[in-house]
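Page 47, continued from p. 46.
Same chain as before, 587 aa.
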Amino acid sequence: MTPGSRALSVSIGQHSTAGSKPENQDFHGCWAPDGDDLVTKGVAVAIADGISTSALGAAAAETAVKSFLSDYYSTSGAWSVRQSGERVIAATNSWMHAQNTRHGPTSDESREAEGLICTLSAMVLKSRSAHLFHVGDAQIARIVGTTLEPLTQPHRVSAGGGKFYLARAMGVTRNVQIDYVKVAVQPGDLFVLTTDGIHEALSGNEIAKIIIAADTLDDAARALCDAALAAGSDDNLTAQLVRIETLPSGEITDLVGADAALPPAPHLEAGEQFEGYRVLRRLYTGSRSQVYLVRDELTGAKAVMKVPSTEHGSDPAQLSALMLEEWVMRRMAHQNVLAPPPGPQRARQHLFAVSSFVEGQSLDEWIADHPAPELNTVRDIVRQIASGLLAMHRKEMVHRDLRPKNVMIDGDGTVTIIDFGSTSVAGIEELAPGTAGEAIFAGTVQFAAPEVWLGEDASAQSDIYSLGVIAYHMLTGGELPYGPRLANATTPAAQKKLKYRPITETAPDVPAWMDAAIARACAIDPTHRYTELSEFTYDLAHPNRALVTDTRTLMERGTANDWRTIAMLLAVALVLAILTRPDLALS
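Result:
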């Protein structure tokens, strides 16, 4: 953490008892990590209630809670809390259901008696928000003043006579429906997690009163269980209380810690030694950064060092983008995505980013060298870019600044996506909202998705748009699907008036079905684009008749090669006719 910054800190009180029953089939747990996990994943608490009709109720509850608390912290730090939590709960539910199906009877009645079935309610506190996951009839609530505000709804149906049955539970079906709620938090907020044995025996006001009167959170949890038992509860009793003590700032500095306080690296010269690297030469000078080819003096390997420009050396947004770049690289491991240098990250005295060196040329240079590329070569380049993007999308990352300048091609034809300063990362957006909000830079409008320029959030479809424009750009020798007009289309109405220019107008040898695939990828409306990168790359190599609506005449559809071939065949036919029909010969 930077000097004076604060971390997320909480106080937790818990208590559980069998109550009037012979066995306690409730289970609860919490995990408050430190270091990076505290920042990127937060604090997690979970509570579960095994169904009383099952002999394995206690085992089910323990499995659900322990699996959530362990597996949640094994998910990518780039994932959003929702994606991480829902994936973990779904996987646990699937495993429990499989166990019930494989080892137990298949009837609902028998499964209830012998199956792994329970409720599960969990809360993750990350940055300045609480993320709630809920299946069943436990409850997550919050103390507001002197009252209790329920934040979840019980999943149950009435069976008459004051009896209820669970409508949703872990392990019952292969797929489980999970309620998800996100709420903002403030220091002093107090959350209360209870199994139904407590909140069915006590009113919300009674629960709030008991908690407020207690000296400690552990005392409050114990007092709730005692009060519910005294009120006639015949169920197991479990209570968890979580109070927010301090919150982080909600900025990128929460993630990068002390590095945020480092001074920006200065401009460097060839031959200079700097923080364990020797500068070989300058590769690029831009408005926001200087890029150098360097050699690691420890390993001897070449690397690329990026430092902020003089103009932006004190701009927080630009410095955040620079810090984000290496963070993204260190969480990716894909042959088509730029990697950090091998080995652990070293302590630094200045702020800069270092990546592996790709020996080759940028895609814009390649396009200039190949104004009429082979179709299969274009398909291969697009496929590799799509493969790298897919790896990023699976980690809930959207590149947002995909353009030929940010794609490298080495001597073997391997493609590498570079420059992650504009990347939107779901997990970081939760931590520091708006980190990537202003990170699209001047000069990229022709490749950035139209919705981004209207202030909408970028999505995977935004990257698909950029990839479609790149494919168009390669096939037309540097043209764009909407020409220069897109730059001036700054309203939805103006964007709707834009018309896609068929590739075949510039490159008539490109098949109409391939043009149709690119047109779909480049659709102005993101809902009209491909939803999957694999669909796009498949349609580039295989005609999708559903996309081709070519109404041009045969004369208009014919390519130059088509007409040359037809003319040659007609000439041959004419010569043969003359040779076989002397009466047609010229007199």
